[in-house]
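Q: I'm writing a short explainer about F-box domain-containing protein for a general audience and would like to include a description of its predicted shape. Could you first generate the structure from this sequence?
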Amino acid sequence: MNAKRAASKGKEDRVQQKQVAAVGPDQRGQDEAEKSGNQEQTEQDLDQSVERCTRQMEALAEKAGAKGKECETKKAAPLSGDELIASTSAIPVSEVMADSEDANLDVDGNGDNLPESPDYMDNLPDDVLLLVLGLLDIKTRVLIERVCQRWRALARRLWKAQDKLSFMGVFSISQGKPLTVNILRAILERCGKSLRWLDLATASHMLDHKAVKAIGMRCPNLEYLDASGVQLTNSCLHQLANRCPKLKTVLLKDCSDVREKGLKRLLRRCKSLERLDLTDMFEFSGECFNVEGLQLRHLSLRDCSGLTMKGICRIATMCSALTHLVLQECFKLMDVDLLVLCKNLTALKVLGLARSLLHATSKGIGDAIAYLRHLEELDLSRNRSVSDVSLATISTSCLKLRCLDLTNCENGITDAAMVHVAKLPELRHLKINNVRKLTDSGVSSLSCQGHLITLEARGCELLTDRAVLALVELCRELLLLDLSGCVNVTSEAVSGCVAIVAERTHLLTLVLGGTAAEGTDFPLDGKGKLKVDLSNYSVEVYTLGEMSDIEFDYDDYWDQELYDYEVDHQLFWDSSDNEDDIDMVPWAVVLHEEIGDFLDNITDDEDSDEDFAPLAEGYL
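A: Of course. Here's the predicted structure. Afterward I'll give you a sentence or two in plain language.
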């Protein structure tokens, strides 16, 4: 029986094979085309469903925001934070669901009374709908929670998966709809536990220290916080440090009300903190770095003009892991300060000293920076003390230097300095703007290095076509050459550059605004390897937007009708300023024995900076 069955099955298989073979290639092609057409039709149907769904959601969102628009039309007061977030009370579900048969109001706010999902949505799986809903802005995403039960559940899923939050372009003070503390609280209630990245600086907000306290209570896993421009206090920083111990990056630009005690607590409690930005804290002295075990890698102290010598020594000994340090416009730096920093922070890769060396000497600058063997980026712009002597020492010691900014170092830098700079084997980006003593000879020596990618030489009035052609011919990797304001550069330089770059694989941008070449006819580059930009970047021009920032309107920022003041905020007073630091760990870390012994004898209430300077020199 088994043999008969096997024979019968084999016979059937042979018959099927003959039938398949009998089908011609045209028939098989038609079958494949039919299958492909069916697949395309399915994809088109899905695309149409998604598009129809998106249009319906936009219509629902417009209806949901109808009340707010009506307020604007009638010039009524804008919705408050509570009204915007509690969309249940601000916008009736019956109004949002006007096209739906079921428009019951969800009275208790738990979603039980919400209507079921509309019929046209049933064809879309949750994953597809999540992708569409994920494209909505924050305010609309809050509003759609009131549409139906399914949308509410999907919106909640989106919030729970939210790990990054930015409010750029969402709120507007000028339109009477700023980001307020109440709105922030409601949003963080939805996504705070999963949030790891939060940016408040780009929002048009009316936030104070309550916002940071709200963040601390709702965002235990936060790693990145940009609270620049928020009016903070010591107590809110204390709470933030206690509740968000995983913080790795904290940006506090223009938070001038923060004091050393609050920063000290933040540094002490957040052991994983790697990046700290304290730009525009004019009264900052640096004493807060008196904390053991700091793991800071990036520290920015731009415009911290109150930085003292004792604060610098704290940074030098307690922040030995620093790789990026910016001290722009810290006017009190002297030779001894710079030497203390560079001798102790030998791991530095980026150092910014723009307009900070007013009291330093040329030799002192070079001798100090020479200790930074791993330095890759150095900003010495707007320091008249920098000279050929400084650059000679730096060029022989910092051999890993890739980026160097010498803008407006016009007093002491000559062609001799360029000869030294040309010896840096890794140099790729150089700025020598407004260094007016440089000539063709000095700039041409830079071409001998041959690896420059960008060179800015704005306002170098002695440069001519000769320097331009030498740079373009020998620096074959050059992408940008900015000569705006170099009045002696002519159109002949453009003609020469067209011929030189013709066979190169990349585009060279030549900036010639404010030169003799401006307004003349340039030869056409048929191969498209040269771009001529006639912008004049050597002249600083304030745009209308920048002028409005300069003429700052106090009423635009502090709106009494929308902002809920507190007494302690009005007086800029924080009770934590008078609290005792009972749990403060004594400063006992000595990273370098000589500096450590010296600093151990210093107390916060003794020794002014005038007495401090000669003592420091004795330990260097």
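A: For your explainer, you could say: The mean pLDDT is 76.
Q: Perfect, that's easy to follow.
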